[in-house]
Amino acid sequence: NAGVTQTPKFQVLKTGQSMTLQCAQDMNHNSMYWYRQDPGMGLRLIYYSASEGTTDKGEVPNGYNVSRLNKREFSLRLESAAPSQTSVYFCASSNVRPNEQYFGPGTRLTVT
Amino acid sequence: GDSVTQMEGPVTLSEEAFLTINCTYTATGYPSLFWYVQYPGEGLQLLLKATKADDKGSNKGFEATYRKETTSFHLEKGSVQVSDSAVYFCALRAYSGAGSYQLTFGKGTKLSVIP
Fold it and tell me: How would you classify the pairing of strands A87-94 and B44-50?
C-alpha cells in the first residue's frame, strides 16, 4: 500500500516549457487535490477533484490545468511555465468519511 | 473567507522543554481543525484533529483543544525531543460542496529542538 505517489521528485524547466506532474493513490479515495507550498505562505490549493469526472478551481488556479484520468490518478499540467511557478507541489487524496487528507512526498519544481 | 493564523517561527527549544504553538482561526459555521507535521524532505502527515468544540485531539504526546469561544486550537507538548524537529501546520476544514471538503492552512511554524 504505497498511499499517494508523485512523479517526478525534482524538475527544472525553462520559462515557456510545459510539463505534467503525475499523482496516483491506491486508497480508493474519491477526492484528490493539488497544492503548492511556498516559503512563508503555507499550502495553497490549486485545483481539486471531488470525484472521478469532476474538477474545480482552488485558491490559485491561474497557469495550471488538471485532469482526473480515473479514480486513482490526478495530473497537474503547466502549459507555459513561469518563474513564479517555482514551488513544491503536493498532491493529496481523501474520502468523504472520515475525510482526512493524505499527502504525497511532493515535487520540487524550479523554473528558470 | 476562512483563514488560519499561527505563530511565526522559527521556534528553537532545548530537549525536554515545553512546547506551545498558537493557532487561531476565522471561519463561518463549525469547521474541523487539524495539526499537520512536515519532516524535512517529506510531505505533510496528519498529527491530530478535533471535529467539534471542546474536543481534544492527541497523538505522540502532542495535544490541542478546540476552543470555540476563543477560536483557537493551540498545539502543546510537555517534553519535546530532537525527533520533533519539523514544520507544523494548523488547518481548518470546511465543506466546499459536491461532497468535497477543503483545507485552509496556516503558514507553518518551524520547530528546531537542540540536544
Answer: unpaired
For an interface test with A, the pick among B8, B49, B89, B103 (most A C-beta atoms closer than 10 Å) comes out as B103
Q: What are phi and psi of B19, to 5 degrees?
A: -115, 135
Q: Residue-wise pLDDT tens for chain A (112 aa)?
A: 789 999 999 999 999 999 999 999 999 999 999 999 998 888 999 999 988 989 999 999 999 999 998 999 999 999 999 999 999 999 999 987 667 899 999 999 999 9
User: Does residue B15 contact residue B114 with C-beta atoms inside 8 Å?
Assistant: yes
The answer to whether the CB atoms of B43 and A58 lie below 8 A apart is no
Which chain B residue shows the shortest CA-CA distance from A32?
B100
Residue B107 near residue B90, CB atoms below 8 Å: no
Please give the backbone phi and psi of residue B65, each rounded to the nearest 5 degrees, phi first. Answer: -115, 130
Give the burial class of A66: count Cβ atoms within 10 A of its Cβ; 0-12 exposed, 13-18 middle, 19 or more buried: buried
